## 1
Amino acid sequence: MKQRQLNKHQKRLFNAIKKDYDWDWIYLLLLEKAKLQNISERFSVTQLFTGFKYEISRINLCIRLIDIITENVYRKNQYINLNNIRRFLPMYYNKNNVEFLKDTLYIEKAYNLYCDLRKFHTRNWWD
């Protein structure tokens, strides 16, 4: 039997599914990242609607946030607002360990922004 060739989008999704494990939520984000990359490419090629550039920029922002959340982006000496640390890390907050929590805070803020973007823009991408 002849095996069918997968296109670029199918390979990306297949690779994300192949790495899926049930004990970690990061793999769900990687699957969403693969799907968002496919949608971003499709929107940029087809230009189906007015305002597609804005939606592509939101999708690409989500992709970058997923990279931050899954720690694929190295952060070196980047400014992080520490004034609202209690909002994102209330159980870990202690004035003595603020410097040690910068990386965790960076990831938590990225995750919060990613969830907000999905909350307000997902229906525009998939309807």
## 2
Amino acid sequence: MPPGTPVVGPLAAAALFGLDGVTPAIARGTTWTVRYRSASATPVLTLFSDKLSASVLPLLSDPAWLPLAGFAVLGAGITGANGVVPFAVAVPNTPALLHAPFFVQAVAGAALPLEAAPPVGGVLR
């Protein structure tokens, strides 16, 4: 038994915000979809950047991974009855985008602090 005082108390049943299912690789000339899961009717804001930079913000209960001065809004939505909200991006088939970095992170909630999902993305193929 590990040392320390055991934690005893009620278990809170709550939806955990995060990615839903498998997120495919990002490829030029395709539609890339990322899906998030939380409790139904949860507002979700998805942000994107070409860089990752971890920081702690008092408005978020989890780390922010996109640079504060270098992100843009990808989309906003509300989770459906099944708790899922998808965001689809039409990726242009532009040769200049080959190996370009693209990262997405979403935040969710109707009250502060908001929950943040882990970042997802990589380089375009």
## 3
Amino acid sequence: KNAKVWTFTTIKPIAAIPADKLRLEVPNGYVPYRLPTLYGPLAIGQTFPFAGWTNGRQQLAKGAATVYAVLGTDCAPSTSSLAALDEIRKSGTKVLLLSDATSVAAAKGRYFDPTGKSLAALSLTATPTFFRVGKDGKVSHLWMGYDPNKRKEFVRDVLAAPKEDATE
């Protein structure tokens, strides 16, 4: 309800800041919370958790390089990313939509995880989150969030990812 993205324009990156030297002022009405230190999305090089995802007819399986878009069921950025994902798909890149829902009806035709275990294994901090997974089943690229005003840049970055893989 009271979520806000804060940009720290006055803090410059420093190699090592002792934890007791950093202070964050939280505006009135917002509740700060602490995430575990290692919490964050599935990292580049880790194996994508294919088991457990279904669209009600078939299970998710490792195969060709694919962009997996994890979308929130009631998330405006997730909904606004659909046009960009369609553009990416039309360019020949395989795109599969995953939902944070736990039922066929709520998932609206997307793959979902009825147990929540595979979704939890992704360690998402928010939706939408996009993973490019190679045919080896490992995450090669990761994009978090979506800004409809930067659709062209997002599409360009996602389409460039397979070319980057080919040069590695």
